[in-house]
Amino acid sequence: MVRVPLAARNTVNQLRKTPRALVRHYRTRRPHPTVELVHHPHPWSRALGLVTVVVLGAWLGLLIVGNVRVPVGPMNTTMTLRPSLTGGTKINVSPLGALQLDSHHAPVRLDVNVDQLDPVRSQALVDHPERLSGLQDEVTRDVGHGTLDLAVRSCVAVVSGATVLGLAVYRRPRRALACGGLALTLLAASGGTAYATWNPGSVLEPRFSGLLSSAPSLVGNARSIVTEFDVYQKELARLVTNVTKLYDATSTLPAYAPDPTTIRVLHVSDIHLNPASWKIIASLVEQYKVDVIVDSGDTMDHGTAAENGFLDPIEDLGAPYVWVRGNHDSQVTQRYLEGLKNVHVLDDGRARTIAGLRFAGIGDPQFTPDRSSRPDTSQSQELAGARLAAALRDQSTAGTPVDIAVAHEPAAARMVDGTVPLVLSGHLHHEEMEIMKNGTRLRVEGSTGGSGLRAIEGKYPDPIEASILYVDRDSRRLQAWDAIELGGLGLTTAEVSRHLAEENQPGASPSPSPSPTSPSPGSPSPTTGSP
């Protein structure tokens, strides 16, 4: 047996006791303090939450107290600022409808509600009609005071709303005051944007929706609307003045006085056997005092002799009817129309003078009543357009230039670029307008029949579209046009939007006349089918 030295045994025993001692030590010593992790939101999340509170509070403030009631002349109105993605001004004239003006681009919209006509002030105007001459100045002052009052009230409403909501959400006065300050900053930025994009001439191109019969009286004629409105307040004043007259004479609305220097042309197209179109056209002729109607084709659907009776109401529309053949109109249709009184059929480029304007047109070379498309469609349209262009050049050489050319398909109409100031077409069933390379303006009309019975094939009915073209009697040039859009089958909406030719925009220089050129056969043309 080997004897282990005493010193070695003591060392081993010490090593055996060490782990137990360490365990007793760690069990008895005070534990280290622990650190609890607190979740802090991301700075971007905090900023987004703050902006949301500010915007929502400002919006609620505007809804509750952000409006003013202002007497404007004999009218009682309410002016309101509303959050908006596009800006602009909306003038609600109940029950006549509404006028929308692209007056500015900012996240706020100005709403002006004409509430009622004050009977006392209205009667004073009736008893003293001479006061109408000073009504516009009075309205201008009232609108100015109302706008200033609205600005102050809106500032208070925005700051108060954001501050109160901030206090309710964060429960900290400093955070609530920060919400109010941010709201004031956003309002100031919106006001600066509105000021920078302010367009005082926006009333020159308004959009009117509501009762169609009131549109001419509210919008005015092409000549006066260019010369009489130069600042926003005067524009609004004129509108309110006209509304006053409308309210004052509910049974006898003021007549739309024709401008003797303007020829009014009603452009229709693609009626497609819709019998409602004749009543609409007759109403437009009466309301706008139309001098001549131009139909750019597809009046029929199949072009059969059995459909000819549909055309008989044309004789009683109240204005001369200028017509060209579309791809749904047959030679049978054309011969029947040639026998109707008050109808002027255009074909082969032969010029006709009607209502003080010289027209020339060409019938569609295709006849596709089954809506089929043929591979040679583009080529035949360009050849027809080239024949029309040659006839127009011959007219200019003879000293009798044509004022308006008409062709059903835009592909044919494009070939006359540079030979006439204005060419009208249809076929596409939607509205287009462009100035082509050589200066000729191409006007494509939508479907005045709402695409006819085929409108029920789609999910939504197609609108009924037409245009009033204002042509200067002296220069024979287009001055302005009203695009008219009515709801399709089952709808009762109406909208009239005013547009000015570029040369009639405030500060614009007159545009040059079309330069006579021979369009090349390879000139671009849109893809054509058979609507």
UniProtKB/TrEMBL annotation:
Q: Name the InterPro entries on file.
A: Calcineurin-like_PHP (IPR004843), Metallo-depent_PP-like (IPR029052), Metallophosphoesterase_sf (IPR051158)
Q: Which spans of this chain does the record mark as coiled coil? A: none
One example GO MF annotation: metal ion binding
Q: Where is the composition biased (Pro residues)?
A: 509-524
Residues that span the membrane, as ranges: 47-66, 150-170, 177-198
Which residues lie within the region annotated Disordered?
496-531
Give the superkingdom in one word: Bacteria
SUPFAM superfamilies attached to this UniProt entry: Metallo-dependent phosphatases (SSF56300)
Please provide the record's keywords in A-Z order. Answer: Hydrolase, Membrane, Metal-binding, Transmembrane, Transmembrane helix
A Gene Ontology biological process term: lipid A biosynthetic process
> Which Pfam families does the protein's record reference?
Metallophos
Q: Which GO terms describe its cellular component?
A: membrane
Q: What is this protein called?
A: Integral membrane protein
